[in-house]
Prior knowledge:
This protein is α/β, with parallel strands linked by helices. The protein has 3 domains: 1-58, no CATH class; 75-226, no CATH class; 264-353, 2-Layer Sandwich (Nucleotidyltransferase, domain 5). It is built from 13 helices and 10 strands. The chain has helices at 2-21, 75-95, 104-120, 123-126, 131-149, 157-164, 169-185, 193-197, 202-207, 215-225, 264-277, 316-332, 346-353, and strands at 32-34, 49-50, 53-54, 56-58, 60-63, 66-69, 282-290, 295-300, 305-310, 339-342. Helix 2 (75-95) runs parallel beside helix 5, helix 3 (104-120) packs antiparallel against helix 5 (131-149) and helix 5 crosses helix 6 (157-164).
Amino acid sequence: MSFIERQLQTSITAITNWCDKNGFVLSAQKTNCVHFCKLRGMHPHPEIFLNGTSISMVSEAKFLGIILDEKLSFRPHILNLKRKCNKTLNLLKILSNITWGADFSSLLKIYKALVLSKLDYGCTIYGYARKSLLQTLDTIHHQGLRLSSGAFRTSPVQSLYIINKEPALELRRHKIVLKYLFKIKSNSEHPMHNKILQPAFGTFYANKKSYIPSFGHRMRSVIQTLNTQNVEIEPKEDGLPPWRGFNIRTIDEFYKLPKSLTSDNVYRQLFYYHRQQHKDFNSAFTDGSKTANHVGSAVVFNNFTVTEKLHEYCTVFTAEVYAILLALNVIGTSQDKKWIIYTDSKSYVEALLN
């Protein structure tokens, strides 16, 4: 403990000196210290001083909205979160009145904005507390879904998920932490990139079951359960700033011809005419498809075809977009500068233009 005190005191002294030089003042009365420790018996706490005043030792402290207790059980945070959500659910109880209350879609939006957002915040940190603690939040989620949909109290939980099109909190937490993991994985300059992809102290956490593993070790079990350990992530690239927007030219020869009222021969002749008008342009035909267990993208050029298999969790939209990316990769290495990319994904074109 004496070694810890010396190291902490040296760091605090260095921070205090820097603050004095740059015009900042640290208040010892507003500064607290939490001793994170798993020991259960009597044990000494470090005594740390700030400008000659001893820093008070507390059992828990709030940092960026997360209550950190000395045992890192997150019990105070989860209980406080439950109290706050229960107060907000009272508003839903009033608004869900049968005679003059809000409709289903409005209630669900209110629940997501006022309650579910609180449950999502910080779940990457507190989401690995004891299951018995996390189950207290499940009751909040289920009550909110019941109030939003108007379901009976005896309605099964699974039916609530289906009616509201909302997953269980556990699956929702998995989704959020996976998004955070892939965000870090795509950015090699992130300070936690190597520590999460190659976590240390694996043997220690394997032998000490009472200790909560680090984020990298926790995510390994999640990605193995969801079969996403072999998903390749495109590296993050900084896009163009808003003031340097790019112009994209799109051609839609068929927008005035409804499919239900137009013969295939008309489409074919119109396409032949289009190709005649742009005969000096090279063509690249892209497409993406999805079956029960397979997802793939393909690009057809004049002399060759590029195909690639995607993860089974990818959507059709992802397959269509990835096919266009494959075409752009080939076009970027080609000496020809005049190209037209053909796609049947209207949703992608609209997303690109917006």
